[in-house]
Structure to design on (70 residues):
């Protein structure tokens, strides 16, 4: 079924903190500090002590920082 195919660009995945840190260059404290102040995407709880982030949201955050500032 053609409709059942999912293209990679349409999917999202959940990233754990070490991968978020690797992609952004931010340390653990900076990720949570910026998240608290609304400058970084909110985490998604997947367990009692497990937080993840949307890859799309993190990539959008990175792309926004790469845009030229006026």
């Amino acid at each position: 079924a053609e409709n059942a195919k999912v293209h990679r660009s349409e999917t999202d995945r959940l990233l754990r903190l070490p991968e978020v840190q690797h992609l952004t260059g931010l340390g653990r404290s900076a990720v949570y500090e910026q998240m608290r102040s609304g400058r970084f995407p909110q985490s998604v709880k997947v367990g009692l002590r497990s937080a993840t982030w949307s890859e799309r949201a993190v990539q959008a955050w990175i792309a926004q920082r790469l845009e030229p500032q006026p």
